């Protein structure tokens, strides 16, 4: 009798463990499928684009006196309290249907921002969105000027505060290097640095490369910039299988210089290839 009870107990315990195991596997499978879908979306280049239309697309629309995108102004952001200097990000909206090139435009605030403090007491502020220009507004004089004359697309505006300077930094794309009909951050980007003090714009770029990441060197205005090398020359930098080179931007002398010595770079490559003697 006792043996039968023990057998029944073991069978029930086994059934419970099997059920738990099956449930765990189902949850794991669902999680895997979800992650796979998310990753697929991340690299799905067929998703609707949020960049500005390429020159080719623009010319096609202009022939019919039509437009597909309209400008939209974001909320003004005070970046210099003492002098009442504001930046007004300029974004755009892509219409469902083309329209005649006439009429007034409406603004739809949609940007987000964050403020952080660096170790050397330098403050920075970042504004996120989908932008194509910036308006510099002088609250004291009531004047405004656009920062760029050309057609650009960018997704982030960084403002860096130094003791004697305020810099506005934008990593922006200006050409449809990926050839998908729009200008966005799939295309090669350049780094733009605007000095409020000097009222001067600096443009940093390397032909055939993409500005992948940048950061200030502690307690200086100099920058370390990572450039993505487009090895297969398809107009798009793929970080998972294309290399990065690192350069330093000398802010005072406005020069871009290599950080890694040519000799060391050669030695490292030969070592990787197994050809080092």
From TrEMBL:
Entry keywords, A to Z: Membrane, Transmembrane, Transmembrane helix
For the keyword Membrane, the answer is yes
Q: Which domain of life is it from?
A: Bacteria
Transmembrane feature ranges = 12-37
What's the protein name?
A: Uncharacterized protein
């Amino acid at each position: 009798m006792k043996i039968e009870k023990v057998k029944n107990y073991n069978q029930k315990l086994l059934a419970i463990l099997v059920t738990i195991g099956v449930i765990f596997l189902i949850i794991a499978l669902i999680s895997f499928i979800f992650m796979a879908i998310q990753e697929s979306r991340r690299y799905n280049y067929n998703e609707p684009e949020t960049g500005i239309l390429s020159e080719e697309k623009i010319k096609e629309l202009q022939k019919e006196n039509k437009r597909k995108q309209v400008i939209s102004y974001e909320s003004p952001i005070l970046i210099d309290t003492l002098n009442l200097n504001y930046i007004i990000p300029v974004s755009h909206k892509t219409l469902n249907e083309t329209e005649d090139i006439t009429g007034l435009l409406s603004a739809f605030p949609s940007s987000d921002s964050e403020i952080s403090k660096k170790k050397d007491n330098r403050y920075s502020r970042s504004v996120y969105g989908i932008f194509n220009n910036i308006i510099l507004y002088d609250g004291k004089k009531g004047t405004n000027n656009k920062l760029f004359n050309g057609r650009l697309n960018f997704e982030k505006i960084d403002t860096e505060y130094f003791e004697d300077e305020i810099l506005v930094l934008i990593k922006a794309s200006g050409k449809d290097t990926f050839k998908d009909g729009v200008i966005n951050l799939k295309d090669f980007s350049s780094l733009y640095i605007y000095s409020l003090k000097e009222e001067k714009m600096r443009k940093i770029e390397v032909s055939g490369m993409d500005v992948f990441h940048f950061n200030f060197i502690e307690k200086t205005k100099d920058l370390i910039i990572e450039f993505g090398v487009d090895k297969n020359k398809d107009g798009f930098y793929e970080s998972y299988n294309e290399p990065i080179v690192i350069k330093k931007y000398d802010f005072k002398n406005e020069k871009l210089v290599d950080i890694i010595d040519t000799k060391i770079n050669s030695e490292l490559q030969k070592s990787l290839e197994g050809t080092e003697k």
